[in-house]
Amino acid sequence: MAVRHRLIESPVDEVWAVLADGTRYADWVVGTSESRPEDGEWPQVGSSITYTVRVGPWSVAGSTVVRRCEPPGVLELEVDSGWLGTARIALEVRPWGENTLVTIDEHPLRGPAGKLHNTAVDALIQLRHRSMLARLADTVETAPQTTHKAG
């Protein structure tokens, strides 16, 4: 099971603002670039974005569909990375004092990763999550602060 968490030193609304902005997806999701709206209004259920997935010298078009959204605490996505397959990614965002605890839970669904899902695949996903949560924290913590009080 590939579950990881990180404390982000910003309030929940600032973390959710990044997650709820489909144009910022590539800012925090490892391996993606050039995210843009595809269908609907992100992050409403059924809405989607497209982007490019880069794996070494190769690239493939990818898309992500929102399967569940309960602002500002739950965002569940189905990621389609072309020949790499699909995955379920669930993000839980909860207040932790004045900060935010983000938990990410990812499971391959279809394609090679889904068929070959094992502890080695989970270990690779864990490494990706560590980087992804660090990028999310950097994106949120370096964004212009709207709710932090100077002091």
How would you describe this structure to a colleague?
By secondary structure, the chain is an alpha+beta fold. It is 27% helix and 44% strand. It has helices spanning 12-19, 25-28, 111-115, 119-142, and strands at 2-8, 32-39, 48-55, 58-70, 74-80, 86-96, 99-110. The model is unreliable at 147-151 (pLDDT under 50).
Structural Rg = 15 Å
| Residues in helices, as a percent range | 25-40%
> If helices are DSSP runs of H or I spanning 4 or more residues, what is the number of helices?
4
How is the main sheet built? 7 strands, antiparallel
H-E string: EHHEEEEEEHH
Decide which structural class fits the backbone: alpha+beta
Instruction: Write down the overall geometry.
Output: globular
Q: How would you state the average pLDDT, rounded? A: 85
The amount of beta strand, in percent, is 35-45%
Number of extended strands:
7
CA(first)-CA(last) distance: 41 Å
- Order of neighbouring strands in the sheet with most strands: 1-7-6-5-4-3-2
Q: Could you list the spans in which at least 5 consecutive residues all have pLDDT below 50?
A: 147-151
